[in-house]
Each structure stands twice: as structure tokens, then as C-alpha cells.
Amino acid sequence: MKLNLKLNNKYIIGVSYGPDSMALLDLLLKNHYDFVVCHINYHLREESNEEQKNLENYLKLYDIKYYIKEVSYKEDDKNIEAWARDIRYTFFKEICKKEATNHIVIAHNEDDLIETYLIQKKRNSIVSRYGLTTKYKENGFVFYRPLLKYSKDYLLKYCNKFHIPYSIDKSNFDTKYLRNNLRINYVSKLTKEERKNIKKDIFEDNRILKNKLDLIKSLIHKTILSQEDILQLDVDLFNLLIVEKLKIVGISYGFSKKFALDIYLKIKNDINFEFKNNKFMITYSYKTFLISQNISKNYLYIISNLQKNDIFKIYKKSKFYPLIQTKGKYIKNVSKNDYLEINGIRKKVSRLFIDQHMPKYLRNIWPGVYDENDVLLYTPHYQENGYKNKESVILFNDLVLIKCFLLYKIK
């Protein structure tokens, strides 16, 4: 068995103590890869503590460095599978940072590949790829699935042949879950020829999908889309565009075609809207469309410390500069509940944004100048078609602002 992984990389491997991950662990060990093990005890089964203990004993026997995380599921949490996946991948990334690497190895096999494809087709899912890929990147991390060409049965026999310990998760036999039902009643019974034909179908579907992606390539990498950009697409291409836009900001999110169609129709009818959850937002505002991460925290710059490479510049020739020079302390994102005095009239910032037709996605990150008592002194006037007000005391590019604080999240 060949893994096709580079020997000069350091890897994080997720090990559940099932036969798939234990076979992968053995292959990494035998081929002298540099790696550390991550194991999560979800405490969902009675035997999970015993499995953790057995795994730790095995790792100590071979002097393998490892990390253990113990968690418990609460009834009010999200879908249990989504919850476990979020816990798992967050943990992997945390350990990557500790170990100064960005390479993560996952023990998905051929059965997982086929099951994923069949579930995608059954649910009529919107995807940018069918099945699973052997390698993909996400938020600077590189994920590898070197076992996709080996069946679950093959990996089980491998463990038995070389006396590698493992445990079978009894919950895998609970057919109330779609994946388990498919695995037990269909995938496990496929012949080699049937598996080969399904993999051909996956290849063909991905070829068609790639052709569709090529049609929207220019829009995928365009930060702000117009109503005209969207309406040149049919609904299927728009669905694909949403998936790819979410991938750019590092979000994996399943949504229905009904959800995407509702967004498409609102854009077509020029209805402003904003969809938000704790990970991302989709906004259509004044004929502009943006998919981005949701802002996680406020930014703050001390004016006296601004350097040449900062996002904001102070324009000393502005008529507002004397005010900023004498009282200005910070540049930070404006609170919509703040007030600003204009020509002797006190006006709420949220009202200013509406009057200026500022898109909603800019309102949480729009800058203002504050004094040492946190009183708003000044905020730039927004102009449609890009920020170009040279009378402003703060000079910046609104696209840079969006990329820094919505697309890529400066930490």
C-alpha cells in the first residue's frame, strides 16, 4: 500500500481507533513519516474510554507523540454529526499550530468516497465536487486522504494480517443514519466491477461540474458582484457560485436549492436582504451582492501609530484635519447607535448610512474617528461606485476594507 505523501512534511493524523485510521497509522509508522496523532473521545459510547486507553497504550509502545481531546455532546447542540465534525477539524487545526505544520491526514477510504457521492445525489446537493478528493486546501491547511482507493474491507483485512489492534464502532450499525444505511445495505455489498462503475460516474460528474465552474470563474474571484453579474447566470450556475464563494472565505456549509433560489429571486426583483449566521453572511444591498465571513470583533487603530502599511491614511489637506489633529485618538469601526453632529444637527449614524445608500455589508466595518472619551468626531461620507471622497480626513479603499475584515478576518 502506497500513501503518496511527501516524507519531508510533518503530518497531523486523526485516529479514532477504528480499522481505517489504525491502518493509516501503521502505514505512516512503517514508512517513517514524521507525524503526531490526534484522538477525540466524544463520550458517546460506553466503550470510548477503553478505546482511548488502548490507543494510548499502543502509541506509548511505539513512542508516538499524541494529543487527546475529551468532549461531551449536549442535547441542545447542533446535529450530532455536524457537531462532531466541527470539534474534530477545529482540534486538528489547533494541534497543527502547536506542531508548526499545516498538513492533516484523514483515513477516509473508498467506501467513504462512494457513500458521499451517493448521499450527494440522493439529496440533490449543491456541490463543487462530487465524492471526495485526495487533497484539498482550506484556510491555509492542507488535507490528505491517501486511502481513497482502498475499500473498508481491504483495510480491515490489512489490520488483521499485521495484528494491528482496532475497535469497531457499534453506532456504525445504526441504520437510522442515512450513511450507515447505505454502507450496510448497499455499499458493503457492491462487487469490484460495480465499485469501478460508480467511480467512473463520479469522474464524469466532476468533469461536467468543472465545465460549469469554468463558466463562472471570473465571478468567483470578483469581490463585489452586481445585480447584472448575477442575472447573467441561470439558477444552477448561481447555486455553484454560492458554494465557491463560501469556499473562498473558508466556509463549508450545506444549503438547499430552495434557499439558493429564494436568494436568486430576491436579487432578480431587486429586494435588499441580509442572511447571517455565526460563520458567514450573504448580503444583497443597493444592487450589490457579497458573500463573506461574519465580522468577529472590532478593529481599533491609534492614529498617532499609523504606519505606511496600515489600511487607513490620514489626509492632512482635508478641511477636517484640524479637528482630528487636536481631538482624534482612534480609528475604529463605527457603532450604528452613535451620533454625529453635522452642521449643528445631531444625527444617528444608522440614519446616515441609510441616507447615503451604504450597502449593509459595509456598515459593520465602516471607520470613524473617536476622541479619548470614545465620542465619534468624524466618519467618511460613503459614495456609491466605490469610495473616492478626497476631502475625507481618512483615506482608504473600501474593497481593501472588505477583504481585510470580512473575507479574510485580520486577527
Structure explained in plain terms:
By secondary structure, this protein is α+β, with helices and mostly antiparallel strands. It has 15 helices and 18 strands. The chain has helices at residues 19-30, 48-61, 80-98, 110-122, 152-161, 178-185, 192-215, 217-220, 227-231, 235-248, 257-268, 321-327, 349-355, 360-363, 398-407, and strands at 10-14, 34-41, 66-70, 103-105, 135-138, 141-144, 225-226, 273-276, 280-285, 288-293, 300-302, 313-314, 330-333, 339-342, 345-348, 367-370, 376-378, 394-395. The strands form 5 sheets. The chain has a 6-stranded mixed β-sheet, with helices on both faces. The chain has a 4-stranded antiparallel β-sheet with strand order 7-10-9-8, with helices on both faces. A 4-stranded antiparallel β-sheet has the order 11-13-16-17, covered by helices on one side. It is elongated, with a radius of gyration of 26 Å. 24% of the residues are buried.
SSE arrangement:
Elements: E1 10-14, H1 19-30, E2 34-41, H2 48-61, E3 66-70, H3 80-98, E4 103-105, H4 110-122, E5 135-138, E6 141-144, H5 152-161, H6 178-185, H7 192-215, H8 217-220, E7 225-226, H9 227-231, H10 235-248, H11 257-268, E8 273-276, E9 280-285, E10 288-293, E11 300-302, E12 313-314, H12 321-327, E13 330-333, E14 339-342, E15 345-348, H13 349-355, H14 360-363, E16 367-370, E17 376-378, E18 394-395, H15 398-407
Parallel strand pairs: 1-2, 1-4, 2-3, 4-6
Antiparallel strand pairs: 5-6, 7-10, 8-9, 9-10, 11-13, 12-18, 13-16, 14-15, 16-17
Helix pairs in contact: 1-5, 4-6, 10-11
